[in-house]
Please model this.
Amino acid sequence: MTTAAGTSWRAVLAARPVRNAAGTASADPTGEVAIAVPMKRPRWLVPPLSWLVPLRPSRTVRLDNLGAQVWELCDGGRTVEEIVDEFARRHRLTFHEARVAVTGYLSQLVRRGVLAMAIMDGWMNGWVDEWMNERGPGPLWQSSSHPPIHSSPPR
Model:
């Protein structure tokens, strides 16, 4: 089975949502989360047009309580499938019910620039799991060391 974009569901479920390192998240007492993502100045916005059209330095995306739970699970170490399993467990849903809700929500967060999806080849999954176990839990951008990027499988 494939998605509308032609990607198989297995590849989507094996992907790892990674937070935008440039974004800043803040929680309020009600459990909602606001994420400010810096905006890039469009190439066409030059003086004198830039004097007339103000540019906001960042865009804020607000997440409700359920969205905040999904955001909390997107630490770069979990796959989409693991996030769906945890969401289903917390809310007593079937895997397929949770998959529809979570993947739709993740899709919206990717479109808004809050998340990126790291789709790994099969040979790389074991290496990433090993690296994540070595560096411990937490967001990827708080790590002092970054894994090397390979263009082909190691031999």
